[in-house]
Amino acid sequence: MAPSPRQPASGFTRGRGGFTLIELLVVVATIGVLLAILLPSLKMARSGAMIAACASNMRQLSAVVAMYESDNSGTLPKLQDRSYGVDNPSFDPSQELDRTWVDYFAQREYLPAALNQTGLPGTLLCPAVPDYDNDPSWAGHMPQYAMNFLLHPPDWLSPLVGRRSFYGRPSTMALSTEKKILLVESRHLTNRRGWFGAGNSDWVDTRHAGGLGANVVYLAGNVEFRTVQQHMALEDVAQPFSWINFVRQPER
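User: That's the sequence. What structure does it adopt?
Assistant: Structure tokens below.
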């Protein structure tokens, strides 16, 4: 006769494959604490990556502008001009708009895009703008980065800004080129659309860092991320988006 296996003294066995309710609650609570700690850091890392990608786009675009300047005796193109052609916005077919420096750069192959067919190239699209409406019929007017309107304004604006603009003069004529704006993140109509020119802080889109800052390229070529204050004085050169940062020189 084979010997029978020994039975446990208690008469039952405890399962080893599951967790008790208390153990599960402890795990869930631990995961919650870790998420609360990590999510802000992940959000900051994502925001920082977008700022860096956006700054890279603007650096490439400023190199394109510098190339144009080099090819054209150190002057910049007009911000908007009928010689570049005209657009008929989809929401108002009766209204003609002169095409912009963006269209001109594409026509002259400084930008690798047929804007009226493909819309904007990636260099002109900010990664922090979700669901961007890249309509080819609006492309030249809606880059996510704007050129300083006062560098070489369209004819209708030139009499209004007088000698405060460049009037197509070399950008080297600017005072403090490391503080004068060349390109800035822009907005118009809705947060999903940019605009081709910016002439004061009202056109700056502070889309990064929770709406507190924007990338800017100055005439000297330096690309910086700067925060924006709500109230800016004309003389406040230290504030990167005050009026004086856009104009060639202050009134005297």
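The helical segments are 21-71, 101-107, 115-118, 158-161.
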